[in-house]
Amino acid sequence: MMQSIILPVLIPLVAGFLMLFARAGGLPLQRALNLLTTITLVVISVGLLMHAADGSYGVYTLGNWAAPFGIVLVLDRLSAMMVLLTMLLALGALWYAISTDIDRKGAHFHVLFQFQLLGLNGAFMTGDVFNLFVFFEILLIASYGLLLHGGGRERTKAGLHYVVINLIGSTLFLFAVGALYGALGTLNIADMAAKVAVAPEERHGLIAAAGLLLLIVFGVKAAMFPLYLWLPAAYSQTSAPVAAFFAIMTKVGIYAIIRVHGTVFGEAQNALTSLAAPWLLIAGIVTMILAALGVMSARNMRVQIAYLVLASIGTLLIALGLNSREALSGALYYLIHSTVVAAGLFLLADLIARGRGRVGDRFHPGPPMPGAILLGSVMFFAAVAVAGMPPLSGFIGKTMILHAALEGPLTAVVYGVMLGSGFIIIVALARSGSMLFYRTIDSQEMEGDPVNKRALVAVLGLLAISPLMVLFAHPLGQFTEAMATQLFETTGYINAVLTTPTVGGAE
């Protein structure tokens, strides 16, 4: 099992290169290889999660160099869950891309898809900050190509903004990494945590500045206020399967905040303890307010979904800012829910746009839509889920966070913002559904395409995770509570990484 920890990183790397050569065999061969690889990774991810479920840590030392001097991959409940979530999302997005022939619209779609998986899985499993930067760059480079896949003026414009902002973020990342290395002499997350706990007081200022700079970098990735302006255009202008796949991208920033800040500054027991929490709470409140206003003012469905992604980020930041185990447990539950539902909505928006013909997904009266009852029913289900209404999983996640907020700071503000934003989102989604499915123009002919049943499977598969989360809410809640406890008790992570021997016992 310890050797299998590297497989979510190694397999996409090898598969990506193989698909470069598979282009000579045509698109069907690339599709088959990509599907086979992704399904294999789903199975491996399930196995890794089962291994980590008991709270044990798995540490893989690359090159047989022990931490903190060598590169390590670390498996725990959080990293295993994030890898599995990524692979389920990837399978749904890939199935949709193949079913709708979107992968035909540009070169190297399948190659970039696997390298994106390489970057994502590596970011979730790496045990040091420098290699977190490396995997960030891999996933960003792949995302640049996927974002622009198929071309188009608006897509290129949105892609340019996305590239520029992330390049700035990468530059700040290097500054932060350099400052932390200068202050601590290490970039291994576990070793950094051990050294921050005993850092002399005269270095606290430098460490705090570097830590907050790192928070800005992660905030860019997570689309935290005021660093979110790239997200609505980028997510709404790219193709549907890429937007669905990108639903995990903002969660990479959330994961990095939990992993790096939660571990390095979690139990410092000095002035650096929980360095980011106050900033996260404020940023989450503002992000959620602006996201709700964006949902209300959106003029088409894809932009509205992009702002719904932003609203989920605001909710997660508020939970992290509350800085308690109960809030973190709720955040992890809500993270799973918001990711899969947003991905399903992006795919559903594309099916609706195809069905409405020239009107697309704009909130304007259009001609009758083929399969309107089916698509309308699916949208109603997705709207209930994404708005956090009972009985679906969004309601459970938000309830867990709101319950934790009773004992946290700014309780009245948190309740007012989350409930008020939720109400605005419900009103906006009701208006959108009415416009898309009820306000039709008189027309004897349906202009749009009939519902692609194969593509609909991907939508239903992703959205079905929400009721499953309700059906298994108790065991899943216990798992997220155990995960939150493990994340708060950073000593276990630190000891596991720093005491894992190399193969053969070499030091």
Describe what this molecule looks like in 3D.
This protein has 507 residues and is mainly alpha-helical. The protein has a domain at 276-471. The protein contains 21 helices and two strands. The chain has a two-stranded antiparallel ribbon. α3 (77-99) packs parallel to α14 (325-355), α7 packs across α21 (490-499) and α13 packs antiparallel against α14 (325-355). The chain starts with 6 loop residues before the first helix and ends in an 8-residue tail after the last helix.
Element order: H for helix, E for strand: HHEEHHHHHHHHHHHHHHHHHHH
- Going by helix content, strand content and strand pairing, the class is mainly alpha
The main sheet orders its strands as 1-2
What's the total helix number?
21
Radius of gyration: 22 Å
Q: What proportion of the residues form beta strands (DSSP E)?
A: under 5%
Please state the overall shape, judged from the principal axes of the Cα atoms: globular
**Mean pLDDT across residues:** 90
Question: Would you identify the regions where 5 or more consecutive residues have pLDDT less than 50?
Answer: none
User: Total strand count, please?
Assistant: 2
Assembly context of the chains: single chain
Largest sheet, if any?
2 strands, antiparallel
Question: Cα distance, first to last residue?
Answer: 22 Å
Q: What is the helix fraction of residues, given as a range?
A: over 70%
